[in-house]
């Protein structure tokens, strides 16, 4: 394993734990099953509270994030080890044929089996995001996968990548994510993080598909909620 010269024994332990989360590593692309409770990127390259930092320690040189997942969102996260690949994979992700599929555990049982949401997302005040006519266009598709007594498992496909898009759209539809603190009134404390997981990224133009099984804590939550 190639490490930076100042890597500590503690950091080595974290890096070793990360090994099991590597989904794919070839030709400059590095795909990770991101754990929850850590963001994709930090405030600087020296910020050790992010996945990018630890991948840099593991790789021994610069690593770039192709897309961002919220700190509490787990699942498929793409990085590259060559800067020229950033724009290539960003463009691939934005292609209308690409699939970015998430799994979410939500409150309630939707009356629909499938729903398209186009609510524009933007600032509704100085500190909050939400649905607003002046926001940026956003498009999400929701499909009910399974219903429990009081909750549902929903498969989500997003066609744009606005900040907190899935969380805001589901809340707007009246089915906020379990564990949601910002877009649920009152905030949900049923689970210590929002129950959202990036399950699959499919890039047909590159003939690549990456899958991360539902995170262990969300599997337990689904069982508890009879999903």
Automatic annotation (TrEMBL):
GO BP, sorted A to Z: enzyme-directed rRNA pseudouridine synthesis
GO molecular function, one term: RNA binding
Segments forming a coiled coil: none
Signal peptide (UniProt feature, chain positions): none
Record domain Pseudouridine synthase RsuA/RluA-like: where: 29-172
Record Pfam families: PseudoU_synth_2
Name this polypeptide is given: Pseudouridine synthase RsuA/RluA-like domain-containing protein
Organism: Pelagibaculum spongiae
């Amino acid at each position: 394993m190639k490490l930076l010269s100042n890597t500590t024994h503690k950091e080595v332990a974290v890096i070793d734990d990360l090994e099991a989360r590597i989904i794919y590593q070839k030709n400059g692309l590095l795909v990770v099953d991101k754990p929850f409770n850590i963001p994709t990127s930090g405030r600087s390259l020296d910020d050790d509270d992010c996945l990018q930092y630890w991948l840099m320690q593991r790789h021994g040189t610069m690593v770039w994030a192709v897309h961002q997942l919220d700190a509490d969102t787990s699942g498929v996260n793409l990085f590259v080890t060559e800067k020229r690949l950033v724009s290539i994979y960003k463009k691939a992700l934005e292609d209308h044929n690409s699939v970015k599929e998430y799994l979410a555990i939500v409150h309630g049982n939707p009356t629909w089996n499938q729903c398209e949401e186009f609510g524009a997302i933007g600032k509704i005040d100085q500190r909050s995001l939400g649905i607003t006519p002046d926001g940026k266009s956003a498009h999400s598709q929701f499909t009910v996968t399974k219903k429990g007594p009081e909750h549902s498992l929903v498969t989500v496909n997003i066609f744009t990548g606005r900040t907190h898009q899935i969380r805001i759209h589901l809340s707007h539809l009246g089915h906020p994510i379990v564990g949601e603190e910002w877009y649920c009134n009152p905030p949900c404390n049923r689970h210590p993080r929002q129950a959202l997981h990036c399950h699959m990224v499919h890039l047909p133009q590159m003939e690549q598909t990456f899958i991360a099984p539902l995170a262990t804590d969300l599997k337990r939550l689904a069982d508890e909620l009879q999903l």
